[in-house]
Amino acid sequence: MSSTEMEAPEAAGLGDRLRARRQAAGLSLAALAEATGLTKGYLSKVERGVGQPSIGTIYRLADALGLPAAQLLTHGGPPSALADITRASPATPPQDGDLLLRPLFPSNTGQLIALEMWPPLQARPSQDTSTHAGEELLHVLSGQMEILFENQTLLLNTGDTLRFDARRPHRTRSLGPQRARVLLVLVEG
């Protein structure tokens, strides 16, 4: 699997959360690798903040650790009973590189997960498709992207919205010279 570029705080946060949850479960890197079908080297990169797994891989990791994916994707504090607000912070993706994800509600632990996503310019290999329980909603904020299913490819332009069953294997990529900027909403099922 290829490494992914991500803003340092988010990358380190995901890696730190993965390591803490793995250690709390009493698992070595080798044991987690065996449970998920991932390599020990790849998991080490993710824990060090060097690699960003796909959403499907995050769900596989969470499944192996027996916790909701939101506990790996976000900082884990309880959401407010009234409302949560996350103030804007700049996020400029690099022109090249792999998937870039940024949690929009870093303390969310509910069933709804909102991320800002910049799909890579090159699609991930077919063996690295995302598939997980629940639903996904993609809303293209800027740019153009495609989503590749097994036997179907859909083109999405700025302003387009797609909802689908996330158990359907899928991959995304940006089209054109600029990476697309996408609102990704996951509802765990």
Automatic annotation (TrEMBL):
- Note whether Ribosomal protein occurs among the keywords: no
| UniProt keyword terms in alphabetical order | DNA-binding
Q: Which SMART domains match?
A: HTH_XRE (SM00530)
The record's InterPro entries line, in alphabetical order, gives: Cro/C1-type_HTH (IPR001387), Cupin_2 (IPR013096), TransReg_Diox_bact_type (IPR050807)
What Pfam families does UniProt report for this protein, alphabetically?
Answer: Cupin_2, HTH_31
HTH cro/C1-type domain span: 18-72
Question: What is the protein's given name?
Answer: Helix-turn-helix transcriptional regulator
Q: What organism, scientifically named, is this protein from?
A: Falsiroseomonas oleicola
